[in-house]
Amino acid sequence: MKTEQKIAFRQLVASALGLDLSKVFNAQQNMPKQQKTYCTLRYYSYGQETPYEHILTTTPGEQLTISRQTLVCEIQMFATAGTDACAALQNLVNAFDRQPIIDKLKANDIAIVSAESVQDISALLDNTVWETRASVDITIRFTNTVSDDVGYIDTVKIDGKTSGTVKTTPDMNINVGG
After folding, report:
1. Tell me: the pLDDT tens digits for 112-161?
2. What is residue 92's three-state secondary structure?
3. Quick one: how far is CA 143 from the chain centroid?
4. Residue 78 burial (CB < 10 Å; 0-12/13-18/19+)?
5. What confidence tier does 176 reach under pLDDT thresholds 50, 70, 90?
6. CA–CA separation, 55 vs 39, rounded Å?
7. In whole angstroms, what separates CA 116 from the centre of its chain?
8. Dmax of the chain from CA atoms?
9. Which among 109, 135, 131 has a CA at the least distance from the CA of 120?
10. Do β-strands 123-125 and 129-149 pair in parallel, antiparallel, or remain unpaired?
11. Which of 66, 73, 80, 109 holds its CA 20 to 30 A away from the CA of 86?
């Protein structure tokens, strides 16, 4: 997924959970532990869903290469005591079916394919502190479009004999020898 798509998805998750954007971040960041409540996003299991599609544009020499892929995003919520992390993530999953959210995803070439069950992964830390935590895996489909300069042929010279009359148009540069 492109960086812009990840940013858009992160903003959408923060908004749907009612969290400040600074409370939703990538799981693999080297940073101090955050104050609860916060969410982490971990992207994995990238896969190409369809073969690459190559489309010529109206610009000479330009071709678009379109790639449709999927990935899994694990969303973990770390909550303060008294906050139901499982309910919050289930509300997020339900929000993916709301039209305004679908429209925002579509505007960024993203679609939610499926969501697994929300898992309660709360744990006792250092045998002293209970950490309320939940997790859900979301399968995301996304499209990447890249413009390629493939070059083009602007002049063709044909030498040879013909058995008939050759007709040309003003934009054709054909030289028939013989």
Report:
1. 999 999 999 988 777 777 788 999 999 999 998 889 888 877 787 777 77
2. helix
3. 6
4. buried
5. low
6. 39
7. 19
8. 96
9. 135
10. antiparallel
11. 109
User: What is the C-alpha to C-alpha distance for residues 118 and 130, in angstroms, rounded to an integer?
Assistant: 19
Structure tokens at 76: 């973990």
For 14-43, the pLDDT digits (tens) are: 999 999 999 999 988 877 778 889 999 999
Pairing mode, strands 129-149 and 38-48: unpaired
Q: Which two tokens stand for residue 12?
A: 């959408």
Task: Name 67's Cβ contacts closer than 8 Å, sequence gap at least 6.
Answer: 48, 52, 53, 143, 144, 145, 146
Residue located via tokens 């895996």? 137
Distances from the Cα of 54 to the Cα of 3, 5, 64, 152, angstroms: 22, 21, 6, 15
Tokens standing for residue 170: 């003003």
Give me the amino acid identity at 164. Answer: G
**Three-state SS at 3:** helix
- Per the listing, tokens 């020499």 go with 61
- H-run or E-run covering 71: strand 62-79
What is the pTM assigned to this prediction? 0.77
Q: What confidence category does residue 88 fall into, taking pLDDT thresholds of 50, 70 and 90?
A: very high
